[in-house]
Design brief:
Radius of gyration: 33 Å
Distance between the termini: 101 Å
Number of helices: 5
Strand content: 15-25%
Shape: rod-shaped
Low-confidence stretches: none
């Protein structure tokens, strides 16, 4: 008896399944998936790239609830994303870089700077001290046979351990 009831309902259920407009169900799910995916990617990278897809997909999701054509949903998604990306690159990033200046530290900050020789630099002895930004550093010359006397200026090439590798000021 139960089998008979299930078998009589099965054609009606399959007809209902076939009558569902899957496009009206799938598009909102796709837009929602794009929102979740882009927010996850932005959370992992924080580059202000993927974040612009989320509000665009939200707009397309809302448009899909009002049965607006897929072409218009896609156009809104692409247009808003492009506007967000352009705003990010030409307005938001420059403002952030201006407000939050990235200062060079360690080797990045010293390379290319000039240093005052406080003690003669001679790689053969080995000796040499320079003053940079008020700090004293052990120094060696880039060219092994070059000796620089006290009171001269040298250019810092790189840091090797705790020693500044220098060359004569050009």
């Amino acid at each position: 008896m139960l089998a008979y009831n299930i078998m009589s309902i099965l054609p009606q259920a399959t007809a209902l399944f076939v009558r569902v407009n899957w496009r009206s169900v799938a598009l909102p799910l796709i837009w929602f998936g794009i929102i979740v995916l882009t927010l996850y990617i932005e959370g992992q990278t924080a580059d202000l790239i993927a974040i612009w897809f989320a509000p665009s997909a939200l707009t397309a999701l809302i448009m899909s609830f009002f049965k607006i054509s897929f072409k218009w949903q896609l156009a809104a998604f692409v247009g808003m994303t492009l506007l967000g990306l352009l705003a990010s690159f030409f307005i938001i990033r420059p403002l952030m870089e201006k407000r939050f200046k990235v200062e060079k530290t360690n080797t990045d900050a010293l390379s290319g700077k000039l240093a005052f020789v406080e003690e003669e630099i001679d790689n053969d002895i080995p000796s040499g001290v320079v003053r940079v930004n008020g700090q004293l550093w052990t120094a060696r010359m880039e060219e092994a046979d070059l000796v620089v006397s006290k009171g001269a200026w040298v250019e810092i090439v790189r840091i090797d351990g705790n020693k500044l590798i220098c060359r004569p000021k050009t």
